[in-house]
Amino acid sequence: AASVVFTRRGQSAPPFADVLKTVQVLILLFSLLSGAAASLDEYIEAGERLIKLQPGLHNFSGANISDSLTIIGASAGETMVQCAGAFAVTSALALHNLTIKGCQNGCEGRLGGIIRTDSGHVSLENVDVQQGSISCGGTGSVWLRGVNVTVNDSAAFVDGSCSLSWSNGHSDGELRISG
Predict the structure, then answer these.
(1) What whole-number distance in Å separates Cα of residue 177 and Cα of residue 157?
(2) CA dihedral for 29, 34, 40, 41, sign (positive or negative)
């Protein structure tokens, strides 16, 4: 049962949880309006399966994607996800209309790319990948449409029985295939 608090005039006030939720929403809106980067981590930690991002910068620290997750941006030029870690996919990840920017300032040596799967499925459509690579091994699969990869070295690693499909895009790095 919901609790009700009575004010001096006998009117009921909303329960504390409703007030707290409203404050959280107002803080998020203020951070978006003030130009501060929003955190994609909060949505993923909350178990969201469909995330629609507004134009702007969204920070991401990295996560294991063990449930199906779809992230949709406004466009690759307007919606950017800045990664400090990787999307490690064991189920399904779909990214649409985004720019994914890889790790900077001392984390370039990490192996495996900013998007990687060994047993899941990754689908990217109308996505620009900057300063990061895509890695697929084991029984994973990667489907790329309209994907542009800008890196200094390797754009994608494909190993084992991974299935890779890529059309309508370009890369200025190497595509390494083995296995």
Answers:
(1) 6
(2) negative
- The b/e string for 20-52 (b: 16+ C-beta within 10 A; e otherwise) is eeeeeeeeeeeeeeeeeebebbebbeeeeeebe
Q: Which residue has the higher pLDDT, 61 or 28?
A: 61
Residues paired with residue 150 on neighbouring β-strands, in sequence order: 130
62-85 pLDDT, tens digit per residue, is 889 999 999 999 998 899 998 888
**Mean pLDDT on 8-34:** 56
Residue 136: Cβ within 10 Å count: 27
For residues 100 and 30, give the distance between their C-alpha atoms in angstroms, rounded to a whole number.
24
Which amino acid belongs to residue 175? Answer: L
Name residue 50's beta-bridge partners: 70
What is the bridge-based pairing of β-strands 69-72 and 50-52? parallel
Q: What are phi and psi of 6, to 5 degrees?
A: -95, 135
